[in-house]
Specification:
Length: 171
């Protein structure tokens, strides 16, 4: 558990802290190797997250790992990496219930729709990085957050029905 503001929420289940050079044969039996654009990660199979409906636009991809990025200064972001398609890795921003930008009742309703207990809920916002002029502009998608049940290791990309949540909130 990690405390965000006054509300304790679960941390997203981490697969592995970062890229590795290699793995022993014993570890390989219980883990999978994922080649990403950031290097090779060794991920314990039991620590992956299942998205039964996939992500919007990628419904066929259902197994993901949540990985640390190897960049300095990127500590608050994670990589939502497809296990089935190494070319698909999305930046995500874990947020707490109280500092997520959502009204509490909207997240409570969304979690209930997916049978996720609030004490087991982790919220991930998908982040887009765009190069604008000489800088990088980051936006977060509040319209369709990823809700993770940390107890059961299952997640859902939930489309919010309230029009107030933007698809591209500048960070």
């Amino acid at each position: 558990m990690h405390a965000y503001g006054t509300q304790a929420v679960s941390e997203p289940p981490m697969a592995n802290p970062g890229p590795v050079e290699g793995a022993s044969q014993m570890a390989a039996a219980k883990s999978i190797t994922i080649e990403t654009r950031y290097g090779t990660y060794e991920v314990e199979r039991e620590k992956t997250v299942t998205l039964p409906k996939g992500l919007i636009g990628f419904s066929e991809l259902q197994e993901f790992a949540i990985l640390n990025l190897p960049h300095d200064g990127a500590d608050r972001f994670k990589l939502l990496q497809s296990v089935e398609e190494p070319g698909l890795g999305l930046y995500v921003l874990p947020v707490g219930l109280e500092d997520s930008g959502f009204e509490r009742r909207h997240i409570e309703d969304a979690a209930a729709q997916h049978d996720i207990a609030l004490e087991d809920l982790a919220i991930l916002l998908i982040v887009t990085a765009r190069k604008a002029a000489e800088k990088v502009e980051l936006t977060a998608n509040l319209l369709a957050p990823v809700l993770v049940d940390t107890e059961h290791r299952v997640a859902f990309q939930h489309v919010m029905t309230e029009e107030r949540y933007p698809m591209q909130l500048k960070l």
